[in-house]
Amino acid sequence: MEWTTTLLAMLGGLILLLSLGLPVAFAFIAVNVVGAFFILGGENGLVQMARNATGSVSNFQLAPIPLFILMGEILLQSKVAHRAIDAIERIVTRVPGRLSVVTVFGGTVFSALSGSTIANTAMIGSTLLPSMLKKGYHPTLAMGPIMASGAIAMLIPPSALAVLLGSLAGISISKLLVAGILPAILLAGLFTAFIISAAALRPGLAPSDDPPPMTLWQRWKPFCVYVLPLSGIFAVVIGSLLIGVASPTDAAALGCLAALIASAVYRSLSWEAVKRAVRETVMLTVMIMFIIAASQTFSQILSFSGATSGLIGLINAMELTPIQILIGMILILLFLGCFIDQVSMLMVTIPIFVPLAAAVGVDPLVLGVVYLLTMEIALLTPPFGLLLFVMRGVSPPSVGMRQIYQAATPFLAIKLAVLALVVAVPALGTWLPALIVR
Predict the structure, then answer these.
(1) Within the chain, how many helices (H) and strands (E) appear?
(2) How far is Cα 205 from Cα 190, in angstroms, rounded to an integer?
């Protein structure tokens, strides 16, 4: 069978099953069963598929995924994160679009405590959106910052998807976790600048709503009590990685321990909260592990059939530069992001993009940051961006999807600009990881 036929059949079958509504993990497993039987050699191919699945999920590098998810769930279920948002709201004053700026600050802080973009967006949306809409904020400055800052959790550790990407693509997980920090800070800064500029130029977008007069200590006490100690969790996770005393698994375990201690100190830790956190962690982890189990065989089938090497040879014959090839990858990822979820994007493209990037000399860390940014953009891309529907779930019934799409548009433009900047200045993604002590 020609490699082009194999490639089209595998991708076409996958797209068909996904379009029929089959869960991602089962769609990949179904395609793999057919591919393993016909490409890898009948019964022996199916045995190899089972071996691949066992070997892939028993990889110790994947241990940070459930630990990072658990860390965020503990802080979310114990309501500690909600107190931090309230504390941030007190200290942001006398700026146009104050609550929108609070949203960006709060979303960025919680992104450093949770690896889930969905949990981040849902928590901020349920906490701040009703107050913003009641005070007369325009949807662009009410819903837009919530979705935009919620998606930053994709870049800032603890990002479970960054761990998954690093494991599947063979990129250093420690470096990839750290690589997203500078782009994330840049995004948060640009979001804030846009909000302040828009609200200053058009005051009707965000009515003035400074908090009631307080003493300096009344304003800063909640921040010192609830935000600064929680930032210590982020310092534990990232600091242990940067100075080289902990692996990603060790850092994730330390983060879980720190989250438990923080929740206990705030007297917010209960058995019910722990059970809910563990239940949510198990559900997400099982889903991710099923997908990982399918990834090894999918890549192996494409490689064994010659599809991977054939496609690389075809692209090399075009004599494109590494930048042109990277831009082509980005365009494909952005297109896929309009229709499928982030994990599916990884599964479909990694078996092709990673060998291609290695063949043309694209820095794997830059490729990793590009992946994270494009997947973050996909969360807000119509028509099926996941956070668009999360936003709909926490919005009043009067808010329609069209308003949500419009609210996300300016922030999508900012994210695309940062993505272009990372491609033009790769040091934005590689400088900080280079500081990791070996």
Answers:
(1) 22, 0
(2) 18
